[in-house]
Amino acid sequence: MKAGAFFQLFAELLKENPPHEVDWNMVQLLRQIGIVPGQSFDISALSEDKKNALELAVKDAKNLISKGQAGPDAGGWNFSREFVGNYGTSYLQRAVIALIGLGANIPEDAVYPMTKIDSQGNPYNGKHRYVLHFDKNALPPVQGFWSLTMYNEKMFFVDNPVQRYAIGDRDKLRFNKDGSLDIYIQQASPGKDKEANWLPAAKGRFDMTMRLYWPNMEVLTGAWNPPPVKRLD
Fold it and tell me: For the whole model, what pTM was predicted?
């Protein structure tokens, strides 16, 4: 959308969805470009400087939202624990979620750690083998369930011979003798004795998303983070 069409639609939506009281400061800022809640907007009524500024804002906003997708990093994982689902005045966070997911649960219901790089900071690639190791008593602390999903570079599921697209605590995982758990992330099967813990990888670049439903407080405070994914070869 060009700026005129975008802000015209925005103004019409404001008629049915009026701003919240906490938005008072943003409401005052919007008045400077002729957007008043309850009124229609016509970009042609603005000065040339303001018209040009709004057109530039479209490009600048895309860059800001793209940068905002990263989130805080924790051992190769990034995810948001605050201002998700219930955004308050965190307008950038709302825009990021609207772009990549349309909407999101509040953190108390679910959080979604995402990883694009291994423990050495390198992007994942199917030509390598990886392992995600959980120490004993250090599995994702949730009251619901947890899972790890594989996505190719286009964020689609990955075809594989065992038709497994995610792995988690609802699967019949095989724990090590000391109570720890290893998830094997690779293209080829790690062998029959380890196949229960195998998440098939894409051929080229890939990303992974962990889903933590009904997370315990240590997830929400950052006291617990997913362990780094280590490359084996």
Answer: 0.78
Which amino acid is present at 103?
G
What does the pLDDT read at residue 70?
56
pLDDT digits (tens, 9 = 90+) for 146-190: 999 999 999 899 999 999 999 999 999 999 999 999 999 999 999
Note the pLDDT of residue 80: 80
Write the burial class of residue 107 (CB in 10 Å: 0-12 exposed, 13-18 middle, 19+ buried).
buried
Domain boundary (49, 67, 85) is at 67
Q: Within this chain, do residues 114 and 218 fall inside the same structural domain, yes or no?
A: yes
Question: In whole angstroms, what is the distance from residue 79 CA to residue 83 CA?
Answer: 11
Q: Which amino acid is at 218?
A: E
Q: Band of the pLDDT at 132, cuts 50, 70, 90?
A: very high
- Are 54 and 7 a contacting pair, CB within 8 Å? yes
For residue 76, give both structure tokens: 């190769």
Q: Is residue 175 part of a domain?
A: yes
Dist CA 152 CA 126 (whole Å):
10
Instruction: Record the tokens describing residue 81, joined without a space.
Output: 């624990």
- Which structural domain, as residue segments, surrounds residue 8? 3-67
Helix, strand or coil, per DSSP, at residue 60: helix
CATH code of the domain in which 170 resides: 2.60.120.600
Q: Where are the beta strands (DSSP E) in 121-225?
A: 124-125, 130-134, 146-152, 166-168, 181-186, 198-200, 205-213
Cα 75-144-153 angle, rounded to 5 deg? 45
My answer on whether 51 and 154 are in the same domain is: no
